Amino acid sequence: MRKNRLLIFCMCLFVFAGFSLAGDDTVTAEGNGLGANPAEALLAAKRDAVEKGIGTILLSQTEIENFQLKKDQIITKTIGGVKSFETVHEGKTSDGLYEVTINAVLLKNVMRKDLAAFHILAESADKPRVMVVVDETNLGNDEPGNQAAETAIIQFLKDPYEFDCIDPASVASIRESDKKMAELEGDNDAAASIGTKNGAEVIITGKAISRAATNLSQNLGGMTSVQADVNLKAINCSNGSVIGTAQAHAARVHLNPATAGHQAITQASQKAIGTLLDAITKAWQNEQNNGITMSVTVKGVKSFKLKNEVVQALQGVSGVSAVRERDWTSQGKVLTADVVYKGNTSGFCSVVDGQKLKSGTLDVSGVSGMKVTLRIQ
Questions:
Q1: Which residues make beta-bridge pairs with 230?
Q2: Does 63 have pLDDT greater than 90?
Q3: 277 and 297 share one domain
Q4: Residue range(s) defining the domain that contains residue 59
Q5: Is 304 found in the same domain as 285?
Q6: Beta bridge pairs of residue 143
Q7: Which residues of 235-253 are buried (b: 16+ CB within 10 A; e: fewer)?
Q8: Within a domain: residue 123?
Q9: Hey, CA dihedral for 242, 158, 44, 59, is it positive or negative?
Q10: What is the distance, to the nearest Å, from the Cα of residue 27 to the centroid of all Cα atoms in its chain?
Q11: Any idea what the CATH number is for the domain that residue 171 is in?
């Protein structure tokens, strides 16, 4: 029995080592980080604090028979983030890297349910700018001036979440172009390109449609019931990947059918963007925990052998956790790949610039958002 108690006591020390309770919803932990620049080092320190604190919760299911450890299953689950922090130390190491040590207060609950934490998360993700373009049809009227959905979505994002949204006036010309609206609906890369050209890191697009409910007006005192469906999609403008999707339905009644449609679309849009925001928040948390995904283009890759050498070089870059090839041809001599990096774009460029290959070096020749262009010299 004493051995059982001793083992359980040691397991408790193992689970709680590295952090202390600071309240019902928070814990505190120290984090240390290295990076190519101060922002990257701070991000690494936050990640380290989360891993020591509540970011990694160890749930141990143990069966003991005859004082022997029979089964010990460790389950890791990321569930939190940094609410606030105090810098304990910052400086440069002997090899030129930035080093930061912080004392962090970590939240246990979901980020979005705590606005202060959400704002901190948004700042950690460099507060991406959002563009909203919705194809809206109200009771068969598909005029470009229909903006109930866009207005509701932007208002939701700005208050209380304080998103930086692209001016709706710049969206008007896009909404008036059937070609561009078709691209937004069916081509994620084209949608990402439209967002990038307008200065956005995330573009939210989709459809909003309202229809009059049939055989109900006689029971509504002459008023009309209108139902609306809204489908939204958030796209990462740096690589064309879909962050998340959301759908919502709503119904409103009014003497004026068009007004009822407007109100139904507004209500459905608010529901849909609330769901989509959860997906966006989850994506940001994943980036903070696991790294950002950059679209990397390498020019001058003239052979298959050289292509493999470049991929291996990228995989060996400090902070890179994954390299996924997307396209390469010997005729074009261009390799495109998605690179997952624990840091920021600036830090990646600092580390990869001058990376040696057998037949030359990798040099950074261009950066736009999370798109990086390299050239073999």
A1: 208, 248
A2: no
A3: no
A4: 2-109
A5: no
A6: none
A7: bbbbbbbebbebebebbbb
A8: no
A9: negative
A10: 24
A11: 3.40.50.10610
pLDDT at 71: 32
- Measured distance CA(195)–CA(177) in Å, rounded: 15
pLDDT digits (tens, 9 = 90+) for 189-239: 889 889 988 889 899 999 999 999 876 555 566 688 899 999 999 998 877
Q: Note whether 22 and 28 are within 8 A (CB).
A: yes
Residue 272: what pLDDT? Answer: 95
Instruction: Identify whether residues 281 and 150 lie together within a single domain.
Output: yes
Residue 350 domain flag: yes
- Which pTM does this prediction carry? 0.62
* Number of domains present in the structure of the chain: 3
